Amino acid sequence: MLKEIAKDIKSLIDPVIWITEGRFTSNELRLFDDARQLYELQLAKLEFLRFGDDLKKFVRRTAYFEEILGKKSWHYFISEVKGKGQIGHTNQYMTHWFYPYKGKFHGQMIKALINFVEAKEGDLILDPYLGSGTTLIESSLLGIDGYGVEINPALAIVSQIKLDSLKINYEEISTEIDFSKVYKVFEYFSSLKIPKNSIKPTIEDCLTAKELLEILWERFFPSSFLHDLPFEWRNFLLLIYLHALSDYTYLSGTKKGKSLQQFFFDNFKEYMKTIEGCWNIMNRLGIELGDYEILIGSALDVKLRERALRE
Ligand SMILES: C[S@@+](CC[C@H](N)C(=O)[O-])C[C@H]1O[C@@H](n2cnc3c(N)ncnc32)[C@H](O)[C@@H]1O
C-alpha cells in the first residue's frame, strides 16, 4: 500500500521523469522554450494533470504550454502583449509591468497555481498580501473573482489601476487623448502643490483602493478638464505620471536620466501600446474579466466584506 502511494507521489512530483518519458510530447504538447526551471516543469505537469482531459479548457488556462495539439494557447497571445523588462512569457505582460515594483510574483507562476487549486468561475480568490496585484490580474484574466488586502495604500491603488486599465477601450482613449491633451495632463500633475503629509488614510479607515482613489481626486486634484474623463482613464494617466516620477528620481544622474516631462511622454507611449494590445487580445479571445476588490489594511486584522471568503 505504502509502496503504491510512494510510486504515485514520485510520478506526481518528478517532472524530469515526466519530461524524459516523453509523456507530454506524445500528447502533442509544446512547452514554452523558456520554461526550464524545475518548479516551472513541475507546475506545467500539474496543469497537464488538471486539464489534460479537457483540451478546450487546457488551451484557455495553461500558463506553461505554448501549443496543445498544434493550437496556440491563450497564454501565448496574452504574453505577446509585452511590457518593459519582460522576460519571455513569465512576467511583465499585459498591465503587469505598470509602475515599478520589485517585490512581485511572476504572473505565469500565479496563473499555474490558480490552475493547480482548480479555481473556476464563481469562486473567489483571496490574496491577503496583494502587493502590486499580480494575483488579481491573473484571476481576473481567467474570469475568476478576486479579493486583495494590502497594507500599503500606494500599492493598493497601483493594483487597482493596473486592473482597471485592462478594461480601457483603446479606440476611445486614443481618439480622445491627443498630443495636446497629453501635454496638458503633464502640466496639470506637475504643477500640483499637495501639502506634505496631507494624505494619510489610516488602517482604521479600511477603505477600498477604489474609494481611496475617489477621495484623492475629490480632495487633492482640484477640478480640471481631467474630471470630465472617465475615472479609469484619469487613474491611468495618474499612474503614468507616478511612474515617470519614479523613473526620474531613480535614474537622474545616470546615463539613462531624462527630464520628468520626457519620462512622462515616453511612458505614455508605452502604456498606450499596452492598452492597445490588451484591448485587441481580449476582444479577439473573448476574455470576460473577473471582478475584484482591494481592501486597504492589515490582513492580520481586517474585517472582510461579504463574500470575501468561501466557507
Ligand atoms: C511580496 S509582496 C506581495 C507580492 C504580490 N502578491 C504581487 O505579486 O505583487 C508582500 C506585500 O505584503 C504587504 N503586507 C505586509 N504586511 C501586510 C499585512 N499585515 N497585511 C496586508 N499586507 C501586508 C506588503 O506591503 C507587500 O506589498
Could you describe the 3D structure shown?
The protein is mainly alpha-helical and 311 residues long. The chain has a domain at 122-311. It contains 14 helices and 6 strands. It has helices at 2-13, 15-20, 23-26, 38-51, 55-61, 74-78, 107-116, 134-141, 153-165, 170-176, 179-191, 209-220, 231-251, 260-285; strands at 29-31, 65-68, 71-72, 124-127, 145-150, 292-296. The strands form 2 sheets. The chain has a 3-stranded antiparallel β-sheet. The chain has a 3-stranded parallel β-sheet with strand order 4-5-6, with helices on one face. Helix 4 (38-51) runs parallel beside helix 7 (107-116), helix 7 (107-116) packs across helix 8 and helix 13 (231-251) packs across helix 14 (260-285). The chain starts with a helix and ends in a 15-residue tail after the last strand. The relative contact order is 0.12. The mean pLDDT is 87. The chain binds S-adenosylmethionine (SAM). S-adenosylmethionine binds next to helix 8 and strand 5.
Entry summary:
This protein has helices at 2-13, 15-20, 23-26, 38-51, 55-61, 74-78, 107-116, 134-141, 153-165, 170-176, 179-191, 209-220, 231-251, 260-285; strands at 29-31, 65-68, 71-72, 124-127, 145-150, 292-296. It has a domain at 122-311. Helices cover 51% and strands 8% of the residues.
Question: Layout of helices and strands, plus pairs?
Answer:
Blueprint: H1 2-13, H2 15-20, H3 23-26, E1 29-31, H4 38-51, H5 55-61, E2 65-68, E3 71-72, H6 74-78, H7 107-116, E4 124-127, H8 134-141, E5 145-150, H9 153-165, H10 170-176, H11 179-191, H12 209-220, H13 231-251, H14 260-285, E6 292-296
Helix pairs in contact: 4-5, 4-7, 7-8, 9-12, 9-13, 13-14
